[in-house]
Amino acid sequence: MSRQLQVSVLDLVGMRPDESTGNAIARSVETAQHVERLGYKRFWLAEHHSIRGLACSATAVLIGHVADKTSTIRVGSGGIMLPNHAPLVVAEQFGTLASMYPNRIDLGLGRAPGSDMPTMRALRRTSSGDDFPELVAELRQYLGDPKPGQIVHAVPGEGTHVPITLLGSSGYSAQLAGHLGLPFAFAAHFAPQYVEPAMELYRRHFTPSDVLDKPYAMVGLPVIAADTEAHAKRLFTTPQQRFLSLVRNQPIEVRPPVDSMADLWTSAEADAVAARLALAVVGDHESVKQRLQRTVDWLGVDEIFAVTDTYEQADRLRSYEILADVAKEITLPS
After folding, report:
1. Which Pfam families does this UniProt record tie to the protein (predicted)?
2. Residue (of 30, 43, 48) closest to 242 by Cα position
3. Which H or E element spans position 316?
4. Segment 56-77, tens digit of pLDDT
5. Beta carbons of 311 and 255 less than 8 angstroms apart
6. Which domains does the chain possess?
7. Chain segment 216-256, per-residue pLDDT in tens
């Protein structure tokens, strides 16, 4: 007996050059509504600060807005960078969201800063991330049932048991997620070289818990599906340009596709971008199906988060339509 692959979306609220934040957010809402109709499981929003081209700094606010504009899809964080925040505040925010939108809110947690050193100082971040396990334990306590003698309470938040997933781009969170018996999501949309050892660590250290009796693994993947192979490859030059800007430490707005990247980068830059996008799933229905099935078989994941950067919204929506059809043909072992 086999299971169907679960598909979800990770959204960074990408902005075009000179675009208003409101337009970018409206486009994300439209995307969430679209994938909800297609039967996607989740729509998660990232947390990044002081990065021109991304409008996802106020993640909890965005989650509330998207949840209000949808009705069934789960909405959550991919993820909240916990060392940037007091666990009590996160518990209050997500406890409030869970109270407003019952059984629809997810809390994905990461330990990276989501920013550079000056921005970390501006955030008053005092944690290096080394105390991430303690921060996670404190947050889970606030979201759980009250304990005798407990002095500080998350109101709202206490007793909501908002589902938590640990996110990572290395083995650190994978091992912790396994130890705690929590779901784990790996950011292969920008760190594909570490995904296999991280998944092995997660399964090796997994201990059944009151949350899971067996591992539940997710992976973020760059995905661009189109009606033809040629069109998909052309659309793929948009995320290629974004990562090229990242390599050059430039604003990472969503830029129009080009016929060729050859004149835009050096060979070293091309190699750096290719390394970041090594697990990109790009093509028409059949090639996306083949690539995705190979990746799912290789990693043994239960769910994927598609990260789809296209300049035109119509291309993004069409990509998610094709992916929804492909997912119905991908099988997982029981």
Report:
1. Bac_luciferase
2. 48
3. helix 313-327
4. 999 999 999 999 999 999 999 9
5. yes
6. 1-162 (3.20.20.30), 224-334 (no CATH)
7. 999 999 999 999 999 999 999 999 999 999 999 999 999 99
Cα distance between residue 79 and residue 180, in whole Å: 18
Stated pTM of the model: 0.95
C-alpha to C-alpha distance for 282 and 113, rounded to whole angstroms: 29
Q: What tokens were used for 16?
A: 């075009």
Q: Cα 223 from chain centroid?
A: 13
Among the listed residues 309, 329, 310, 322, the one whose alpha carbon sits nearest the alpha carbon of residue 227: 322
Burial of 287 (0-12, 13-18, 19+ CB in 10 A): middle
Closest by CA position to 222, among listed 258, 195, 247: 195
Biggest alpha carbon–alpha carbon distance for the chain: 66
Q: Which residues of 83-118 are buried (b: 16+ CB within 10 A; e: fewer)?
A: bbbebbebbbbbbbbbeebeebbbbbbbbbbbbeee
